Description:
The complex is a heterodimer of chains A (about 170) and B (about 160).
Chain A: H1 3-7, H2 11-16, H3 21-32, H4 35-55, H5 63-69, H6 79-83, H7 85-112, E1 130-134, E2 140-143, E3 152-156, H8 165-169, E4 171-172
Antiparallel strand pairs in A: 2-3
Chain B: H1 2-40, E1 43-54, H2 65-71, E2 75-76, E3 79-91, E4 96-99, E5 105-114, E6 117-124, E7 128-134, E8 140-147, E9 150-158
Antiparallel strand pairs in B: 1-3, 1-9, 4-5, 5-6, 6-7, 8-9
Amino acid sequence: xxxxxxxxxxxxxxxxxxxxxxxxxxxxxxxxxxxxxxxxxxxxxxxxxxxxxxxxxxxxxxxxxxxxxxxxxxxxxxxxxxxxxxxxxxxxxxxxxxxxxxxxxxxxxxxxxxxxxxxxxxxxxxxxxxxxxxxxxxxxxxxxxxxxxxxxxxxxxxxxxxxxxxxxxxxxx
Amino acid sequence: xxxxxxxxxxxxxxxxxxxxxxxxxxxxxxxxxxxxxxxxxxxxxxxxxxxxxxxxxxxxxxxxxxxxxxxxxxxxxxxxxxxxxxxxxxxxxxxxxxxxxxxxxxxxxxxxxxxxxxxxxxxxxxxxxxxxxxxxxxxxxxxxxxxxxxxxxxxxxxxx
Lengths: 173, 160
């Protein structure tokens, strides 16, 4: 029995999102290295798309009718805003003065604490619980907790080969 | 008339506020730096539990009921018992840990505490090195290695 024979019965469930986390991980791992099973899965996806297209009913476009029934709203005159004194001088203040003030403030901070320059460099924050992982070449399964207070599971696998479905159905500890 | 006399005064006060904002920001940054220094001496608490899931029929240890709830849908085992529970109270960068029954050391080192939770480095001797960002009370379960007729499991849970 090949590994494809073992994984094959799970492809439907994988496609429909019905597999448990662990089985899903095993199937995903197999798919990553098996073009035959990937094309079988892609066939399932195409069937799903075709089913959706043929069963879809075109909704009538109601928006033009809604727009036609809306009362017309006149735009507010802009004369009041343009006559405000604040409005008149704001553009003059904005760019150079504020920019200079921020530059002086930043220079002051860096003068006092030069090591804080790292704060000015944006650092990409990866999402998720596991930020880095080295399992020394052993296969490892990571199931990140989906909700608050759910456990994140990191499972170091013993075997490199694909499992027997009966074993994986309820993976022996 | 009144509008022309009020304009310059308003302009002056708004200018003062806008120029003062960056200075306030600078003061806030320096203050935050102080809190970063304070973080270095901050202590973090976390529970470290070593348990053994086994194929041998037996009970589920009451202390591991939450662990059983996390694992039973994914793995097949007959019993689960807690080998050791240790509460660690560590400063940032301080290393704490436990020794597994197999003799391997498990080292835990808190790296940072932030809005996203506690960043910790976990090192299981010769087996696994990982950095984890763990939110308060959210457990991390690590299935480490085979032991007797089952598997050793290390779980971590930061205090609130």
